[in-house]
Amino acid sequence: MTERLEELMERAAGGRGPIVLLTGAGISAESGIPTFRGAEGYWTIGSRHYRPMELATWSAFTEVPDDVWGWYLYRRSVCRAAAPNAAHAAVAGLERSIGDRFLLVTQNVDGLHLRAGNTLARTFQIHGSIDFMRCAAECVSDPEPLPETLGTEWEKGRPPGPREKDLLRCSRCGGPARPHVLWFDETYDEPRFRFQSSLQAAIRAELLVVIGTSGATNLPNQMCEIVASRGAPMVVVDPEPTPFSELALGSRAGVFREGTACAVMPALCDEIRRAVAGAGKA
Q1: In Å, how far from its chain's centre is CA 248?
Q2: Do 221 and 198 reside in the same domain of the chain?
Q3: Which of 130, 221, 230, 277 has the fewest CB atoms lying closer than 10 Å?
Q4: Active site residues
C-alpha cells in the first residue's frame, strides 16, 4: 500500500494540474463539531421535533424563519467555540508549501479551514459559511458577514429577539437576511458555491484527496466520479469504508487510507509536499 501510494504521489506531482483536497464533516468532528445528522441535530419548535434535513431548507425558512435562525445561530456558536485540529493544520500547511498547485473544496460551513490558515483564493466553500448571511429576497447575491454585535454564543432553543432580528437584515435593502448556506431544497450554482469551478478542478486534478465525507451530496459525488473515470490518482481518508473508498479501490489509481483525519492527514500532507518538491527538482 505504501509503495502504491508513493507511486501515485510521484505521478501526481509530476503533472501540472491541481492537487485537490475535498473535505467533509469528518475532518471537523475531531474538533468537537457534531454533524447534526444524528440525535444531536434534532431541534424542537413548540411540540414538534425537526430533523436537520427539514430545518435546513428554504421551505422551513419561509414558514418559521426565527426558529431556523435560532438553530443556525446555535450551530454557529458551537463552531466558533471549536478550534482547528491537526488535520486542519496539515491541510493549511500543504497550501503554504505547494502554493498555486493546491485547491481545497470543502463541504463544511464551520470556517475552521480558514481559521487554520487556508486562503479564500484557494478554498471553495461549496455549501457556504455559517459566519455569513445574504439577502433573502436576493436584492444582491453577495454574502455579508454576520454582525459582530450579534455575538458568538447562543442558547440552544432560543430564537432571535427583536434586537437580533434587526441585525439579521440585508444592509442594502433592509429586508430579512438568510444564512449563507446551501439548503437541501436548493441547487448548487457557480457564483455562490463554485459548482462549475469544482467540476473543472476534478477534470484537471492530478490528485484528489477525499477526507471525512460519506458522499451524501451531489457535487462531491460528481467530482469523485470524474476523477475515478479519468483514472487519476485518488486517496480516500476515513475511519471506515464509504462509497468513495469503494470507488477509489475500484479505480485504476485509488488508495483507501483507513483512519481519522488527525491520524492520517499530517503524514499524508508531508508525502504530497515531498513529492511536489521532488518533482520541482527533477
Answers
A1: 20
A2: yes
A3: 277
A4: 127
